[in-house]
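Deliverable D4.2, example record:
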Amino acid sequence: MHGVIVPGGFGTRGIEGKIRAIQQCRKEGIPFLGICYGLQLAVVEFARNVCGIADAHTTEVDPCTPNPVICILPEQRNVTRKGGTMRLGVYPALIEPGSLVSRIYGEATQVVERHRHRFEVNPDYHDILIENGLVFSGMSPDRRLAEFIELPSHPYFVGTQAHPELKSTLVKPAPLFFGLVAAALLHAQRMDTKA
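Output generated by the structure prediction step:
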């Protein structure tokens, strides 16, 4: 493969297979873009296999996980009727200067993308993820919510809580897709050189 997208989604179907695919992308230097659930599962994979938290999970799949690296928004934990409870619509993200995400967005310090989700990277795990090399390259204005992640030692390992496909067109592709395709082309060239 020259590049992989793990898109948004819901539920438990195929989760462990997606996590294994993300792990292979991370270890083999395969360009990867995680969108919404894809970012969340990338965090689960990283927590398990880099941070050593073997039972890390998302509460969407395992509500009783002892290490909920992905969890529902605290203000929604007591909501039983889910209709209308998503973080839905456009939200700003403060972008880390010098990050890959910053370069992808033309050295932007803030971007606005559309969202459609209810689960977040649990702030209780931010420090251990960062200590082990995960970069939060975009954060909510209050610095509480991870909006973008990346691995600086990887050619293109990026995740976003947003849904860039909602603003992408054939004549003006979303920057994250353009970046993934460019990285995939370089990866394909490297693979041809090795062959």
